[in-house]
Amino acid sequence: MADQRKSPIKEKPLRYSGQSLDEALDKLINEKAMFYVLASCLTLTLAMIEWLKYYNNYPPSPKTMTAIALLFTGVSFYKIRKMVKQSKLIRQGRDGEKIVGEYLDSLREDGHRVFHDVLGDNFNLDHVIVSTKGIFVIETKTYSKPVKGDAKIEYNGDQIIIAGSKTTSDPITQVTAASKWLKNILKESTGKEYLIKPVVVFPGWFVETQEPGLKSDVWVLNPKALQSFINNEKDKITREDMMLATFHLSRYIRSKASL
Question: Are residues 81 and 151 in the same domain?
Fold first, then answer.
């Protein structure tokens, strides 16, 4: 007799902070790196078998198999070494997103709605906050800090200056594009034009925003400062429109999870 029971869970759970990077790390280790580990073990095993044949007077061909094994092992070692470095960067980024997610989750106490790891097409929004203060798209950048010297990030409204030397506008471009994408998604779903605020946060860094940066369309902050920045904003969205956006964003996230 067929089992007539079914799961009591009707909807997919919302995504957690750093989930995309967890999935990327799992794929890197369990799919890519494991292939090279297993292939190296296999070729070395085959080479050992050939050497056993050689020492037991069976018709041997150990030199060819050993050359193949050593070649493949060398390639595997090179690939795995690169993957180890890549995995460290992924872990650092994931941990940064989780730390920022913990800061943002405290905003729920103020009545804000917080979403993590919102999937788009071949990209993701690290965090989204929906509140009467507006809707905020948060891009987390977990950059390594110098052991010595200036460990400060400066923002002049156009560019981000990292540790006094490296200058980039990529995070600003990225979070601005993500905000426009979310604005279009909500407009298609709700028929309303919501004000979306792009925000870039750098966990663990001292962030100094110059006067033009304070007037910029994009905030660049240490995540610990985000709560006060949001709470100092005037209300821009009615409670009803906030809940409407929350409902449609939740529905979108769950629909992506079921694909």
Answer: no
Q: What is the pLDDT of residues 88-99, one digit of tens each?
A: 888 888 888 888
CB 236 within 8 A of CB 133: yes
CA-based torsion, 99, 104, 105, 106: positive or negative: positive
Q: Say how many C-beta atoms besides its own lie within 10 A of residue 245's C-beta.
A: 22
| Domain extent for 227 | 110-257
Q: How many domains does the chain have?
A: 2
The whole-model pTM stands at 0.74
CA angle, residues 176, 179, 180, in degrees to nearest 5: 90
Q: Give 143-167 pLDDT, tens digit per residue.
A: 888 877 778 999 998 899 988 887 8
Spell out where 190-235 has E strands: 196-201, 206-209, 219-221
88 and 123 co-located in one domain: no
- What's the CA gap between 22 and 32, in Å, rounded? 15
